[in-house]
Amino acid sequence: MNLSKYETMDPVMLMSIINMKIRDEFEDLDSLINYFEIDKEVLISRLKQAGFDYLPEVKQFR
Hints:
The protein has about 60 residues and is mainly alpha-helical. It is built from 3 helices and 2 strands; from the N terminus they run αααββ. It has helices at about 10-25, 30-35, 40-50; strands at about 55, 60. The chain has a two-stranded antiparallel ribbon. The longest helix has 14 residues, at about 10-25. This is DUF4250 domain-containing protein.
């Protein structure tokens, strides 16, 4: 799944995709961010507005 439109993607779908990719393909959020060249602040802010926080200890947005 391409994350190039993460800024306008449905936030629930975005959260689901990010969590799946971290679980299946990346070691952590930073690895995913670096690979896709995503602005971490924008991603976290966008998901926070939808009620999701990143929990580094479980490597998921919830």
